[in-house]
TrEMBL record:
One of its GO terms (molecular function) is DNA-binding transcription factor activity. Transmembrane segments: none annotated. This is LysR family transcriptional regulator. It holds the Pfam family HTH_1. Keywords: Activator, DNA-binding, Transcription, Transcription regulation. The keyword DNA-binding applies. GO terms for biological process: DNA-templated transcription; positive regulation of biosynthetic process. Belongs to the LysR transcriptional regulatory family. SUPFAM superfamilies: Periplasmic binding protein-like II, Winged helix' DNA-binding domain.
Amino acid sequence: MRQLPSLNTLRVFEEVARHRSFSQAAIGLNVTQGAVSRQIKQLEDYLGVALFVRTPQGLSLTEAGSNLSPHLAEAFDHIERALQAVRVPNLRQRLKVLAPPTWATRWLSPHLRAFCQRYPDINLSVTNQIGHDSLTEVDCHIRFGLAAAPHCVSQLLVMERHIAVASPELFNGDQPPDLRQFPLLHILHDGKRLKVWENWLAAMGRDDIDAGQGLEFSTLDQVIHTALAGGGLAVIDRQMIEKELANGSLLPITPIEVIGPYGYWLDVANDKQGLSKVKLFTEWLGVVSNP
């Protein structure tokens, strides 16, 4: 009979070692920080050595902890692969993602091939609308907003990077279009205009332009298509128009770039944090968002 501590204790150690934080491990495991601390103490008592030490820089692994951590992570990887190998094919996991339509179309879609090839047993369901009765079915919520959401695990994926752009036909040779001669294109969020033009004009030091004039649209895609057709000037997150900037169908009016204040956040309910499909998607999304 194998003489081993509980798998739960070992899992707690792996989580703390990965995050170098009791509090972050507690969030990831959906338990209290005190429970994590007790599990680590039990493992240290079992082994007879300290695994962590607190330093001015935070929590660090001792020599014993550093030796144990990679072996334990590899062991859990082996267990996970063994379980995946014998799973019934019909039990493929469905991961439901709620996301803004333009982000899903212009950012997520081009990256999905890599995710599906890496995790073929996860079926993604991406939607931008969901009924109240189905909200509990959502595994991950990509949200456009200003700050982290309360009552869940919320992390910033990427901040917006706004630039002013126009169709090449509005340029006069190398001269950019006059901001006073063309409509400004605005995007609505929760029924109100985002102040992207005000922020960009402030960064430019321009107080001679009426930021309130122009056309407004309910989706960013509508703004982008209107700008492509030469229907006006737009301030757009450059991460949403990488293809258009690369092929020259939209040109920057100036090199000025304004960061934020809005960004895209990943919100995961506390009761979804422990799901393997959620952890895999979250880790993959973090890597792809910050190459």
